[in-house]
């Protein structure tokens, strides 16, 4: 599962970088700079934890750099970092994942996490800030990337859609109906949708347009 999650991370990282190139810098200088700083911060944290995982040292004194790199340079650096994580995970085993690693945060405090915990932190931290960047893109009249694990899986493996088409018609209809209906005691919110009195789920707020 870690391998697919880091493959998703690499895929999801590419879209905000491409979207940033569409921002009119003269019209939205503050938003563009903030988005660039967030992307660079995410990259720096990725590299700091890569050093912790690899048992080496890093050269960062803080969780961001004083200067903001150019978009092209940042794009290349992020892609290289994502490749490093993919290669690192490929050589891990279950024992290594549970190994506890001592380290120091950039503020000097001591810390200790297992390899697995560090990897999940890197995943969660990146996803959190990609959400921040998506909001900034909206302020700049640039479409937000549709960062969905379902979208990633079906883009990477188009044959998954063929499997759904092979379902017996009655079963496919039953599944579609189940997605559109909620039991009377269901919660009002699900994936951004709102349940009406009849139990029908409005799906327009779901970024995927589906459940």
UniProtKB/TrEMBL annotation:
Entry-linked InterPro entries: DinB, DinB/YfiT-like
Family classification: Belongs to the DinB family.
Keywords: Metal-binding
Any Pfam family hit: DinB
Single GO MF descriptor: metal ion binding
Protein name: Damage-inducible protein DinB
Residues engaged in binding a divalent metal cation: 41, 125, 129
């Amino acid at each position: 599962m870690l391998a697919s999650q880091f493959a998703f991370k690499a895929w999801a990282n590419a879209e905000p970088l491409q979207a940033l190139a569409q921002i009119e810098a003269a019209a939205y200088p503050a938003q563009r700079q903030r988005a660039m700083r967030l992307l660079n911060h995410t990259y720096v944290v990725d590299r700091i934890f890569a050093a912790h995982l690899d048992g080496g040292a890093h050269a960062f004194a803080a969780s961001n750099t004083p200067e903001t790199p150019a978009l092209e340079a940042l794009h290349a650096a992020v892609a290289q970092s994502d490749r490093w994580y993919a290669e690192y995970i490929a050589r891990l085993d279950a024992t290594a994942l549970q190994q506890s690693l001592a380290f120091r945060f950039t503020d000097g405090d001591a810390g200790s996490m297992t390899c697995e915990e560090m990897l999940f932190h890197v995943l969660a931290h990146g996803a959190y800030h990609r959400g921040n960047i998506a909001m900034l893109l909206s302020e700049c009249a640039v479409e937000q990337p549709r960062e969905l694990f379902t979208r990633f899986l079906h883009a990477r493996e188009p044959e998954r859609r063929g499997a759904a088409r092979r379902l017996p018609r009655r079963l496919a209809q039953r599944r579609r109906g189940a997605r559109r209906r909620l039991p009377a005691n269901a919660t009002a919110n699900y994936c951004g949708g709102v349940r009406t009195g009849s139990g029908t789920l409005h799906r327009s707020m779901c970024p995927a347009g589906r459940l």
